[in-house]
Every structure is written in structure tokens, then in C-alpha cells.
């Protein structure tokens, strides 16, 4: 691939990410003002100055506007850059914590608000569960590649499920305590997993 094509694709991806973030920001504002159920896709699109058809180019449903994010590719890249001597769990922990650490205060506030809605609105919980299965598959694929196993291997899937369980518990705690240190809670929880979950 030529450097010009790579640059064009990079610009396209950045523009897409910027549009997604803007739509999510307007959606969150409308959900605050009108309530989640009362807000329509048309209202979100109008606030973001895009057409409803453009909205559906980025999000398949209204729920998707909160569940979808652009963090997975960043976490995968951070994971792949972890030193080879680290265990898979250490590599996952470092990748997640480093990417959370890269978020601005505004991005963290948006993550907190999205998380509170996803954990408290029944329709969003269902959509979040479906998204978690996709995240589990992503973790399985990146870990399997690192350890030279199949993503469908029961040991790899169990590992991914444990990571996802930890992440879910942290999301629930963060929804109850939105002013807490999300990265700190996640690191502590993953450290407990690495230590064998002592109680």
C-alpha cells in the first residue's frame, strides 16, 4: 500500500471517528434532556447535522450509538506492542490501562455517562451484552495469536471470559461510582484476577 493511500485511509478513519464521537455527544445530551426512550434517531441526526441515513451508516440502531466505540482497534494495537515476556493477562492489563490513560477528561466523562446509561436502561443492557460477546471474540483472537492457539480453544475462551467478567464488574462499580478512578479500579480488578481472585 502506498504512503499516500495509507494517509488517505488514516484521514478517512479519523474523520469517521470524529463523526461518531460528535453523534454520540449530541445523543448523550438529548438523552439527558429528553430521556433515552423519548429521544429519536431523527432528533439525534438533526442535532448532529447529519441525515438519518448517515446516522445508520455509522450505527445500526439507536442502542448502538451508546454501545459502539472506537477503542477496540487501539486496545488491539496496544496489546500487540506489549513485550513478549509478559503473560497474556499482563499484556491485556497493560494494553487496557494504557489506552484508558490516553483518554482526555472529556472522553472519560463521556465514557462514564455512556456506562451509566448502559448499566441502567434495560434495552441498553441487552445491547451491551451482545457487544460484550463481540469483545470476548476480539480478546480471544488477539490472545490466541500471541500464544499460538486457536481462538475457539476452550482455554482461550475461558481466559477471555474471565477478562470480560472483570471488565463487567468494573463497569457496574463505575456506574454506581462515576467519580471513581476507572483505570485504577480496572487495574486493581485485573491484579486480583492474576492473583487467583483471593477474597
UniProtKB/TrEMBL annotation:
GO-annotated molecular function: DNA-binding transcription factor activity; transcription cis-regulatory region binding
Which UniProt keyword terms apply here? DNA-binding, Transcription, Transcription regulation
Q: Domain of life, per the record?
A: Bacteria
* Residue ranges of the annotated DNA-binding region, renumbered to this chain: 40-59
Extract the InterPro entries matched here: Homeodomain-like_sf, HTH-type_TetR-like_transc_reg, HTH_TetR, MftR_C
List the Gene3D superfamilies: Homeodomain-like, Tetracycline Repressor, domain 2
All copies of domain HTH tetR-type, residue ranges: 17-77
Note whether Protein transport occurs among the keywords. Answer: no
Does this UniProt record's set of keywords contain Transferase? no
Pfam families in alphabetical order:
TetR_C_14 (PF17754), TetR_N (PF00440)
Q: What is this protein called?
A: TetR family transcriptional regulator
| Organism for this UniProt entry | Cohnella abietis
Amino acid at each position: 500500500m502506498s504512503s499516500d493511500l495509507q494517509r488517505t485511509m488514516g484521514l478517512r478513519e479519523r474523520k469517521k471517528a470524529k463523526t461518531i464521537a460528535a453523534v454520540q455527544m449530541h445523543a448523550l445530551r438529548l438523552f439527558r434532556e429528553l430521556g433515552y426512550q423519548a429521544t429519536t434517531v431523527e432528533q439525534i441526526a438533526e442535532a448532529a447535522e447529519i441525515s438519518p441515513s448517515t446516522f445508520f451508516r455509522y450505527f445500526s440502531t439507536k442502542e448502538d450509538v451508546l454501545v459502539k466505540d472506537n477503542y477496540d482497534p487501539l486496545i488491539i494495537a496496544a496489546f500487540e506492542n506489549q513485550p513478549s515476556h509478559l503473560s497474556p493477562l499482563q499484556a491485556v492489563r497493560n494494553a487496557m490501562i494504557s489506552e484508558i490513560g490516553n483518554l482526555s477528561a472529556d472522553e472519560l466523562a463521556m465514557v462514564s455517562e455512556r456506562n451509566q446509561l448502559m448499566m441502567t436502561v434495560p434495552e441498553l443492557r441487552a445491547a451491551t451484552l451482545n457487544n460484550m460477546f463481540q469483545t470476548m471474540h476480539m480478546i480471544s483472537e488477539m490472545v490466541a495469536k500471541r500464544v499460538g492457539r486457536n481462538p475457539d480453544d476452550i482455554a482461550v475462551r475461558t481466559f477471555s471470559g474471565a477478562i470480560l467478567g472483570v471488565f463487567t464488574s468494573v463497569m457496574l462499580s463505575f456506574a454506581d461510582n462515576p467519580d471513581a478512578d476507572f483505570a485504577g479500579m480496572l487495574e486493581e480488578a485485573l491484579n486480583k484476577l492474576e492473583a487467583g481472585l483471593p477474597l
